[in-house]
Amino acid sequence: MESSSASSAVSSIVQTLGGGSGIDMAALASNLAAAQFAGRVDRNTQRSETVERQISAAADLKNLITQLASSVGDRVRTGDLSTQPLIANGAVATVSRGTAQGSGSYSLEVTALASAQVLAGPAFATASSPVGAGSLTLRFGTLSGSTFAEDTAHPAVTVTIPSGATLAQVAGAINGANAGVTAYVANAADGAHLMLKGPEGAANAFVLEATETPGEEGLAALAWNPAMGMGRIKASAASAAFNLDGLAYASASNTVTDVVPGLSLQLTGTNLGNPTTIRFSDPKAAVATFMQDFTAALNELVAGLKEVTNAFGGDLARDPGARRLRDSFARLAGSAIMPGAAPGQPSTLADLGLATNRDGTFRLDTTRLDATLKASPAGVAAMFTTGLYGVYSTLDKLARTTTSAGDPGTLGGSISRYSALKTRLASEKTELAQAQEALRTRMVERFAATDSRVGASRATLSFLKNQIDAWNAQGR
Known about the structure:
By secondary structure, the chain is α+β, with helices and mostly antiparallel strands. Helices cover about 45% and strands about 20% of the residues. It contains nine helices and 18 strands. The chain has helices at about 5-15, 25-75, 165-175, 285-310, 320-330, 365-375, 375-380, 390-400, 410-475; strands spanning about 85, 95, 105-110, 115-120, 135-145, 145-150, 155-160, 180-190, 190-200, 205-210, 235, 240-245, 245-250, 255-260, 265, 275-280, 355, 360-365. The strands form five sheets. Strands 1-16-3-12-13 form a five-stranded antiparallel sheet, with no helix packed on it. Strands 8-9-4-11 form a four-stranded antiparallel sheet, with helices on one face. Strands 5, 6, 7 and 10 form a four-stranded antiparallel sheet that branches. Strand 17 and strand 18 (about 360-365) form a beta hairpin. The radius of gyration is 43 Å and the shape is elongated. The relative contact order is 0.15.
């Protein structure tokens, strides 16, 4: 059976030959060339259209699974799918979940915040003022009144100050020593001051000693110890102090990690005599809503997958990437997403109520979900993190595997294969057009000579006819 393009070309040739008043050789050549290549052009067009649909279908599936994984990640990162600490008085501290799962409630009273020692040097004209040469030594310990007790376990740090150094260069040399003390030059109303700021915590107070190079004195002006008076101390080193459920705690920093299971604190204010309450949220309702939405999203993806893999007309009916994705969904509910879970703890999406129907779609078993939430809230919370295992990591791994262009058995590999075929078909289309044009050109050249001979013959025939007509007229 001829294609529509071939039929059209042959019909045009018949019309040209049947003109009766002479043959259009150029049109005849074009139509013959088109008829010669019509079948191959049609096959190329049909294959190109099929490949375009396959690329589109595979890309749509790939985007859907990627978007689902991304959405699950965003939802997990909000934190409400696992127990989260909440504080009644947000001016006292910021609370966050520690490495463990927390529960219950606590009373928090912050009596003191941690602070760092700030030491101001004497005034200089500018930051470019020379300060002498030699070395400066930082010693660390505890400062109580005018008494400094050095912590010998905290090594002293000596900073070399080269000849001709300026105040700004001294600050740079101290920062470069990585001693834990930050140095900068402050331009105050009375001049430029070398400012030194140490780490938080009472044990991180410091003194500054100077050793001068003979003939280049001046560094002694920067030195300080408590015997010189406390006027240059702008802030004292102190540790944080707080009571949690009435028990006293101390911390060198205002950041306190895992003070109790599942609870970390960032202290921001004091509330002496007015304790605030910290409690842990109950994520059961949020998890139930998430699982409902998750099941619905999976079913939308499965519906799209079924449509394109339909054996009767599906664009990806025989595609290996689509088949692998379908198989992955069939195993999804029962696969272990928490391989390290203790016996009796939830480890699969089925434990969260995800169930697979016979037709490959999903449903939510709310009875099983409720039972899991009641029996192991901590186990459920552990499944909703951004760690190596859990709901998000499982979907993320599936998405990354599905979109891998290097694996020919994935949708990503299928898209790469179809894209390469699309390129070949485009090249083939160009080659067919060039070959058709070359054939048309050869035919035009050949038909031109034929047309010339036919024209000469017709002229002779016309002359003879005219002569015969004349002879017949004379014989009457």
